[in-house]
Design a protein that fits this description.
It contains 14 helices and 43 strands. β26 and β27 form a beta hairpin. By secondary structure, it is an alpha+beta fold. It starts with a helix and ends with a strand.
């Protein structure tokens, strides 16, 4: 036999053995998958990766019933294919939901025997990626996805297809659905509580659902929230068990009993009390799957008739579950109306794929401006019909510094940022004699984290464990109160509190710092001297100033000067140690540079804890001649839409820009957001440029579209350039000195 022929036969034989070994897993669920070309809402077709015909060398990640995760072990040259059917030829826009572990991953999606898309994913991580448009002829066809590179594993959730001709209408519905998240993005931090009928006291037996709700002291709870400085609360409608602290008759009707609802509307009482204090109110919702209690062991989950096929393939009829969900969520939304600011829906692995438009309509019942979020965990966000990132796995870096809070990168691109860390060792009290662990943060570490995220307009929700009687960990409470004190008076417009500031001058004698005192001082420290004639001095730009320190029997008189003019002698002694008292306050100073000085006269000690000064921002209208405009700019006046000074500057030309040179530590760009606006580029000095999207379905005026604080004191240059959209506008600038 010819040697070359012999070798060829050996290769063919070995290859056939390999193919025989690689068994094929058939397509799961409907076959063919029929594309509904008549739907006008929820008209995305989902091709779940785990439902595809595929080689058995691929596998499905599992986290147990009833969650469906994704297909893994999708390696080089392997394929997935789906048998599909369309009534009429159409072009379909395709989005891929996947995780790559390295960049430059290449694929081919084809209609076997027809059109194809060759594409490359150029970044790593979970992402939603538009991969192109493919033509699908009428009739039954095979859609086949193949990996064309050999560089590691891929996790693939799905392909989402929507008719290209219907995409603009889809996008219009998305824009109409989304609510204004500005108020939420302006929050620094809030609190979350996994509290409900599943809870326990610190020791002993739990109360009944009715008794637990009836005994809860709302006034004490709200006072505790206020003491932390939290600006909003996320409260659990359901969690460890599917029990709701409210009389939801619609749920009773579904179940045929009222054992899962309480007679008292505790949720409503909390919503009302927080609303009276100007504190936002949001609800967390768990779907009630009972795997942690014994899968399919509760009447609620049995009622939902969950398909067994969903775990392994992401397929099966879940209409009963979604219909029951809409009944309960709509009822609660209508019950609480405008006092319910948003929903956080947990366990996106249970929802996806879902009729998200219909779910969103139910979730916004009673308040069309309500914010919606689904928890995708580590996966990219699941739908355009939501407003916020759920935040359990924080992706704050996706929101640029100085932006609006909208994620412009990471898998949650297109929704507004939010982070949700645990303060302690668990999310909530769910067992008898459960203890609350030590805080995961110090006041300083929490402050640093929240401050950095606040510069991105990404709020942080600290989850606090809470016992049945409403008590929380005092250690955790102390952390939150300490963080609140570190923010000091920053929450008050135009005020700033400084503590360890290098610009405070200590002279005239020996000064020392006392730290970790545990006496209630600002930032837990003070500076002190025992030398008469020693002084502390600080220069600032502003209209007012306070000197803050403790009173104590060992202290005596000090003299205070403003701009070298004596303001009199002040006695700082007290009958006992009293932290953070105001020694001296001056207001109504001219808006200019000033110097405050305190001098020790007598007594054993003089102590300085902090200095607060009033530093009102300066508004610069768009017509100010210190703003430099480059390109085709015009002014529109007398608009009557609530712009600052009733006018804006605008340009229709991409590449046009304005520049502003200012002396200060912060700046805000105030403009409008509207449907005829697009992306802009913002840069300060030589910092990396930030791309921001000023599009909004309806006009919003006097919006801070960019802000940057904590700049070094000195001269800075702001440059803002038009990139897209019909117009770019400038209303005003707000400068902090």
């Amino acid at each position: 036999m010819n040697l070359k022929l012999y070798r060829l036969l050996i290769v063919i034989f070995l290859t056939s053995l390999n193919y025989a070994h690689a068994a094929v897993i058939p397509q799961a669920g409907a076959a063919p998958i029929v594309f509904d070309q008549n739907a006008t809402e929820d008209n995305i077709t989902y091709l779940m990766a785990s439902s595809a015909q595929r080689p058995d060398t691929t596998s499905v990640q599992s986290f147990g019933n009833p969650k469906h995760a994704w297909l893994q072990s999708f390696d080089s040259s392997e394929y997935l294919q789906w048998n599909v059917e369309v009534a009429a030829r159409a072009n379909y826009r395709v989005t891929m939901l996947l995780r790559t572990f390295s960049a430059a991953q290449s694929f081919k999606l084809e209609v076997v025997g027809g059109s194809a898309i060759n594409f490359t994913i150029n970044k790593a991580g979970w992402q939603r990626e538009h991969i192109g448009v493919i033509n699908v002829p009428a009739g039954q066809h095979t859609l086949k996805l193949t990996r064309t590179t050999n560089n590691g594993d891929i996790h693939l959730k799905s392909l989402e297809l929507i008719e290209d001709a219907k995409y603009s209408a889809y996008q219009a519905r998305v824009n109409n659905f989304k609510s204004d998240a500005t108020s939420f993005s302006n929050y620094k931090y809030g609190l979350m509580f996994q509290y409900g009928g599943w809870g326990f006291p610190q020791s002993g037996q739990a109360k009944t659902l009715d008794k637990q709700a009836a005994d809860f002291n709302v006034s004490n709870f709200v006072n505790m929230v206020k003491s932390t400085g939290a600006e909003y609360v996320i409260w659990s409608a359901t969690w460890w068990t599917y029990e709701i602290n409210a009389p939801i008759s619609e749920l009773d009707a579904l179940l045929g009993h009222s054992n899962r609802t309480s007679s008292r509307d505790l949720i409503g009482d909390i919503a009302n009390a927080l609303d009276a204090e100007g504190i936002g109110f949001y609800l967390y919702y768990h779907t009630g799957q009972d795997s942690h209690l014994g899968y399919n062991s509760t009447d609620w989950w049995v009622l939902n008739n969950w398909p067994s096929s969903f775990l392994s393939s992401g397929t099966g009829d879940r209409d009963t579950f979604f219909n029951n969900w809409k009944v309960v969520i709509k009822a609660m939304g209508e019950r609480y109306g405008k006092k319910l600011d948003g929903w956080f829906f947990d366990d996106g692995l249970v929802y996806y794929p879902a009729p998200f438009e219909a779910l969103g309509a139910a979730a916004k019942a009673g308040n069309p401006e309500r914010l919606i979020s689904y928890n995708p965990w580590i996966v990219a966000h699941y739908t355009d019909f939501e407003d916020l990132s759920f935040g359990e796995d924080c992706k704050a870096e996706g929101a640029p510094m100085g932006g609006t809070g909208l994620y412009t990168s990471t898998g949650d691109k297109g929704v507004y940022g939010h982070c949700m860390p645990r303060m302690e060792n668990d999310w909530g009290i769910r067992g008898a004699n459960q203890t609350i662990g030590n805080p995961n943060f110090t006041a300083k570490s929490a402050y640093n984290m929240v401050s950095e995220r606040a510069e991105r307009k990404v709020p942080t929700s600290f989850n606090l464990m809470m016992y049945e009687d409403g008590s929380v960990s005092q250690k955790s409470l102390d952390v939150l109160k300490g963080m609140k004190s570190l923010f000091g008076n920053d929450d008050e417009v135009g005020q700033k509190t400084i503590n360890d500031d290098a610009n405070i001058t200590y002279n005239g004698g020996t000064w020392n710092k006392s730290r970790n005192r545990g006496a209630g001082d600002y930032n837990d420290d003070v500076s002190y001297t025992s030398v008469n004639g020693a002084y502390a001095e600080y220069s600032f730009f502003g209209t007012g100033v306070k000197l803050i320190g403790p009173r104590d029997p060992s202290q005596g008189n000090i003299e205070v000067f403003i701009d070298n003019i004596s303001q009199g002698v002040i006695n700082t002694s007290g009958s006992s140690y009293q932290a953070m008292t105001t020694y001296f306050e001056a207001s109504n100073l001219s808006a200019a540079n000033h110097t405050v000085k305190m001098v020790k006269l007598d007594g054993n000690w003089m102590q300085l804890d902090a200095i607060t000064y009033t530093n009102p921002p300066v508004y610069i209208n768009n017509t100010d001649n210190t703003i430099t405009y480059a390109g085709t700019w015009r002014t529109s006046s007398n608009r009557n839409v609530k712009d600052y000074q009733d006018d804006v500057a605008y340009t229709p030309v991409n590449g046009d820009y304005f520049e502003y040179i200012f002396d200060g530590t912060g700046i805000e760009v105030i403009s409008e957001m509207n449907s005829d606006q697009g992306e802009i580029e913002v840069q300060i000095d030589s910092q990396p440029a930030v791309i921001l999207n000023t599009y909004n379905p309806s006009r919003l005026t006097q919006k801070t579209i960019y802000s940057q604080f904590n700049l070094s004191q000195g001269t800075h240059t702001l440059k803002v350039t038009k990139l897209s959209g019909q117009y770019m506008l400038l209303d005003a600038l707000k400068v902090t000195r």
